[in-house]
Amino acid sequence: xxxxxxxxxxxxLENYGHDFLLTWNKTPDELEATLLMAELLKERHRQGKPNxxxxxxxxxxxxxxxxxxxxxxxASAANALGLAVSDMDEEKSQVSHGETVRETAxxxxxxxxxxxxxDDMYLGEGHSYxxxxxxxxxxxxxxxxxxxxxGLINLQCDIDHPTQSMSDLAMLKNYFGxxxxxxxxxxAMSWAYSPSYGKPLSVPQxxxxxxxxxxxxxxxxxxxxxxxxxxVVKLADKQAQVSSGSFQITNSMDxxxxxxxxxxxxxxxxxxxMEERTTLLKQGDQAxxxxxxxxxxxxxxxxxxxxCTEDKMKLTKGGEALYMHCLPADITGVSCEQGExxxxxxxxxxxxxxxxxxxxxxxxxxxxxxxxxKHPLSALDKLA
Amino acid sequence: xxxxxxxxxxxxLENYGHDFLLTWNKTPDELEATLLMAELLKERHRQGKPNxxxxxxxxxxxxxxxxxxxxxxxASAANALGLAVSDMDEEKSQVSHGETVRETAxxxxxxxxxxxxxDDMYLGEGHSYxxxxxxxxxxxxxxxxxxxxxGLINLQCDIDHPTQSMSDLAMLKNYFGxxxxxxxxxxAMSWAYSPSYGKPLSVPQxxxxxxxxxxxxxxxxxxxxxxxxxxVVKLADKQAQVSSGSFQITNSMDxxxxxxxxxxxxxxxxxxxMEERTTLLKQGDQAxxxxxxxxxxxxxxxxxxxxCTEDKMKLTKGGEALYMHCLPADITGVSCEQGExxxxxxxxxxxxxxxxxxxxxxxxxxxxxxxxxKHPLSALDKLA
Amino acid sequence: xxxxxxxxxxxxLENYGHDFLLTWNKTPDELEATLLMAELLKERHRQGKPNxxxxxxxxxxxxxxxxxxxxxxxASAANALGLAVSDMDEEKSQVSHGETVRETAxxxxxxxxxxxxxDDMYLGEGHSYxxxxxxxxxxxxxxxxxxxxxGLINLQCDIDHPTQSMSDLAMLKNYFGxxxxxxxxxxAMSWAYSPSYGKPLSVPQxxxxxxxxxxxxxxxxxxxxxxxxxxVVKLADKQAQVSSGSFQITNSMDxxxxxxxxxxxxxxxxxxxMEERTTLLKQGDQAxxxxxxxxxxxxxxxxxxxxCTEDKMKLTKGGEALYMHCLPADITGVSCEQGExxxxxxxxxxxxxxxxxxxxxxxxxxxxxxxxxKHPLSALDKLA
Lengths: 384, 384, 384
Prior knowledge:
The structure is a homotrimer. By secondary structure, the first copy, chain A, is α/β, with parallel strands linked by helices. Chain A folds into 2 domains: 2-160 and 360-383, Aspartate/ornithine carbamoyltransferase (Rossmann fold); 164-358, Rossmann fold, CATH 3.40.50.1370. Helices cover 47% and strands 13% of the residues of chain A. Chain A is built from 15 helices and 9 strands. In chain A, α7 (202-211) links the parallel β5 (186-191) and β6 (217-221). Chain A is globular and about 55 Å long. The A-C interface holds A 55-58, 60, 84, 86, 88, 98-100, 103-104, 106-108, 110-112, 140, 143-147 and C 45-46, 50-52, 68-69, 71-73, 75-76, 79-80, 82, 84-85, 327-328, 331, 334-335, 351, 354-355, 357-358, 360-361.
């Protein structure tokens, strides 16, 4: 643990008030500090040592979409650091802007150290909303209305899902031994069939937007028409060049799986569908939404062979690639008739997916620690 | 208080990871340690001394039925020991099993020390569900996914209601001076009339399943047809023999009250009705449920004289038996036109019923302490 | 801060178990202690010093009306002092009395230090309900059922809104330098137009019921027919005489604003309408409620010129009166087409209204501290 502390201290950190919204807006040092801090907090927790860096204060969560896992991860992280969770229940459909957001953000923040937001239902909305809240609390802090500048944490937006992708990165670092060891490793971020529709794009976008920075060989695979937000795809491509990794897109799951060290088969809705859905949701067009769902499911049904089966796994490196998933997975014959992954493959990697998930509360805690402590390094010394 | 600590230390405890699901699966030592611990925590609280044995951690509550009192008792207990409550709101009708339960149980437990579950709506469901959750967190702990093994506490299931029956036992121990003094005392666990229907069987089952172990003279009284789960009745009978107490069933409230030291008049639905209701609930058969309710209420109405009145109380020992109730009671002329107990009887024993209830948060805290602390005895020393 | 502590110690306090329900039932010393304590807690929070006077315990909130701001203020205050919040969600329409209130109040209070209640929907209900809860926990404490006497805090009732009016007083004290400096200052508590209806009377009543005690020149302005509860108006008049201030009522917003040092333009429903509404709500008369709303909005629409505009502000002292509002305000062209205040006036005073709101969590914390600590002065010493 001392090693982690020394390493964090050697990094260039300007975290206070620097919200954690998109991984690609964070420096490599900030990302590494987050990983190191998460590992430190996790190991201390395993040893039964307290991580209470706040004596009091609120961690406000704003969920604009249902969630059980992220709620508990957020609550766990807050509690571990000494903060109390206060939920703000917003009508899911109510998308407030401007004056209302500014005022509410300040009204809930007089004793708040962290605000976590999940808003992934509308393309073009979630990230914008978070930036509005961020600007509001920044202004409130500068004007002397707020004694502390609450740090914002993106618990999933329309563009990125940093608490997920960072947990996945923590898992990979631990699995392969170091960040350096990820260089040249091939990951297949692949679409997979699901009997549901409208799943957000933020998980695959988060993965390609983060792992291309570590010299990995990132292959994005999906059926024709299931593309992601173009800007994020471009970004991934650029980052891969900078990190001397690579980034490919293919319409073949087999091609992606071939020789892969890691596979991440997961369903999502096509970008075009999400755009149309956003328009219909805003218009409250129920008939249109039903029509869209029907046509989308019909289209999905053409790709039921995009399933992570034992045969597909045989294509991977030595037949032993690491299977990853953000959970819950659509497991064929278990949670649905036909889904993203066969029961035997899932079962083989069940413990791995649980471990992958186990990083999330600590990643969130690390983000809270680094963005909301005025002097994280001295707080670190007090911990140790 | 020192006496309680010394006594707890003399008992044979293997609590860690031993969930508190059914009192009859706990050893006499485990039950006594729970009582002694509850008394200790209660006395310390009365004196304004802190009971903080955890520095942080979550206490997760899963309520599959409405509850105010148990919610507050659970929240109070968690807070007193230093845990933060996190509610998991499940759709009441959604009965999940298998993979989903295993996964969810682990996902909510990364920093969780205690899980409290209330699931009493379906016969054959509540206890099974708790065992599934228990197996899931046990496996997660053994596989290294969870750093701690969260202790499970049954906050009422289809079979038992241990937090209630143990609070009642604590009340009786205090009222009569010791557990030994309960030997030979007669308790009338009696059905009583209520204008509602479908009340769970777990309270009377919990009472006969626990008090028959203390050499008491336990009489179960109910109109014909209002029997309890047969296995629990058999168990009560067997336990009474072992403890040199007695166990009788009668269809006369008067007979049960005659010479009783304690009376516990409380409405419940007949076992057969609960079975039929479970089937209809699972089928979502609203018309069937309405029909069942109607016929059940009609049948109930034949037994409006099963009311705990002043006249009935005169039949008890010296006319001064202790009246008990888990609250809220259906009080004639107060909370309903005609109910379980007359206003004058209830009023005479109002303070006693409040005291009876006052043990519950401390009983729950004792269960949390003993099942979730790796080293409860050394934690005890730190408290003292 | 030492000054505040010394001053609090010089005051005559008998707070323990003295609930904070109506400001006019509190002595001047109790009010001043609350202000001084709020300032102390706020300054300590600004400096990053902990205010943890409780080691554990619950702060129960009972909201019988929706609320975001007050919820967060209550949660912040509780957390700052070391208490955990437990919400009791009551059906909004369910108005319980008698036995049920007595029992529930005790059942939720075994480890509870503070109970905050918001109940402002029905005239004649909110304050009565709070008094019932207060009597119940007082009896429970005296009977030995409760180890602590939870302090009650009125988070808004049908008559008063003390957490708001005391925050406003704290703002005014800070803005003008001292309570003494408020003598002779003119405040215009004025009705203002809003496109909604049925807003409670408790804010204007709270303001005239509090500020008339500080020698201020209080002018209540509203269109004919928009009067407040007569008893509170009489009380304001009497208090103004005692404090050598003054109290006037006018039907002209301009007259009220003329030469005012402070303006507080805010919509409310006429007393008569609130009485009729209460009757209809109790009867569940939906048609009647719709009719009442329609006729009330039609009447409101006659007074759209009751808006706080730049022109109106020019009438005030030097054109620079302090604008106050409890938030959220109905801002013309921002949150509604036409409302209580013009966008330019609101924007000029936006920071001031946020500061005004920033006192509320600390005012609530001060009320908690003083009503729920057996020995607040020695707790104060421990803080310092």
